[in-house]
Amino acid sequence: MMQSSMSLTAAGTVLAAGLALAHRPDATFQTASQGLTAVAGLKVGHHTLTGRPTGCTVILAEAGAVGGVDVRGGSPGTRDTELLNPVNSVAEVHAIVLSGGSAFGLAAADGVMTYLDEKRIGYPTSGGAVPIVPAAILFDLAVGDARVRPGADCGHAAARAAGDGPVAEGNVGAGAGATVGKLLGSARAMKGGLGSSAIHLPGGLVVGALVAVNAVGNVTDPSTGRVIAGARTEDGGGIADLRAWLRTAPTAGGRPMENTTLGVVATNARLTKAQATKLAQMAHDGYARAIYPAHLPSDGDTIFALATGTHTGSADVTRIGALAADAVADAIVRGVRAARSIPGYPAARDLK
After folding, report:
1. What is the DSSP string of 276-319?
2. Is 60 left (phi over 0), alpha (psi -120 to 50) or beta?
3. Packing angle between helix 108-118 and helix 152-161, nearest 10 degrees?
4. Is 248 part of any domain?
5. How many domains does the chain contain in total?
6. According to the model, what pLDDT value does residue 24 have?
7. What pLDDT is recorded for position 9?
């Protein structure tokens, strides 16, 4: 029998208290609501196709940013990620695109390239500037009309809308059609969303994250140990304990759940491509803290890393990477809490 993770045993209560202490913000830094745009040199824009819903999110680095990437899921849909390999030549990127629409959504990057080309921004070549725009997609075709998906026009619109103000969260951009808790079937899933967070350190160093949360598993707030969204119990009033289910349920057959959580972490520190790649790798710990289970054969869990280099102080990748994982976990929680319900998918705010 599945158990609701909304009620904790005495041992679980002790564990939750320990988690809360381990993740309590220290006095030396604070989490900011502005999100990823707290990193100087970055802009974020969304375009949402509300009729389905789906959409795309664009992170612009018009002055260029050193990029890295780490793909952990077994079914990724990506574009131009190989050029971020530290052994390859191109050192900077000019935008990152996160999109719904499965593989069709990769077309959104074409619109971002057009936008940057119109501004003559790109990697210098003998034939002119070529924008470097890596992209990744998530699967949301099961939500609404699958024939509605982001294209080049969506990417162009998101780039035009990009700004350096507080990042919109919830049912926007790449998070518009995102859902969570699909391990027990879509009928018991809940609404995911897009969230963003930033950590400010003394001396002006900033570490930020933006995540489109579209997970097959449950979402936990690491600060309390409480599961806040995911696969609902059969009566729909609580959230099932997926850890118990995975240990006791018969081997599941049928079609694997399609999902994928996408993220971008960024800092104003000066990093090399190898350091940016390590930053992306370390940031995946935030997925593991806030999503259970994560990094599955049927998802494309991916995190991009950007370093704008506007901070002149020294760069400690150990510290930056550890904080990036914290920012990712916080962005996941923020995205789910900001989400609003859509037909068939209640939001975390709807649970009592």
Report:
1. HHHHHHHHHHHHHHHEES-S-TT---EEEEEE-----S---HHH
2. beta
3. 50
4. yes
5. 1
6. 35
7. 29
Average pLDDT on 180-202 reads 95
- As a whole number of angstroms, the distance between CA 311 and CA 85 comes to 24
CATH classification at residue 275: 3.60.70.12
Single-letter code of the amino acid located at 80? D
Tokens encoding 251: 């081997």
**Of the given ranges (6-10, 127-131, 315-319, 338-342), which has the lowest mean pLDDT?**
6-10
Cα 141 to Cα 114, 147, 172, 175: the distances in Å are: 26, 8, 16, 13
| 18 vs 223: CA distance, rounded Å | 9
Partners of 206 in beta bridges:
200
pLDDT of residue 20: 36
| Confidence at residue 33, expressed as pLDDT on a 0 to 100 scale | 66
Q: Residue 315's Cα: distance from chain center in Å?
A: 24
CB atoms within 10 A of CB 33: 12
Residue 73 has pLDDT above 80, yes or no: yes
- pLDDT at residue 12 is higher than 80: no
Domain of 308? 30-342
Q: Shortest CA distance to 93 belongs to which of 128, 121, 118, 115? A: 121
Q: How far apart, in whole angstroms, are the C-alpha atoms of residue 126 and residue 163?
A: 31
Cβ(281)–Cβ(271) below 8 Å? no
Two tokens at 302?
């991916």
Distance CA 148, CA 153 (A): 13
> Quick one: which of 170, 115, 123 has its CA closest to 347?
170
Q: What's the pLDDT band for 258 if we cut at 50, 70, 90?
A: confident
Establish if 199 belongs to a structural domain: yes
Q: 210 falls in which pLDDT band (50, 70, 90)? A: very high
Measured between alpha carbons, how far is 171 from 256 in angstroms, rounded to an integer? Answer: 25
126 within domain boundaries: yes
Is residue 348 situated within a structural domain?
A: no
This prediction's pTM:
0.90
DSSP 3-state assignment of 171?
coil
What sign for the dihedral angle of Cα 143, 160, 121, 69? negative
Residue 315, pLDDT score = 86
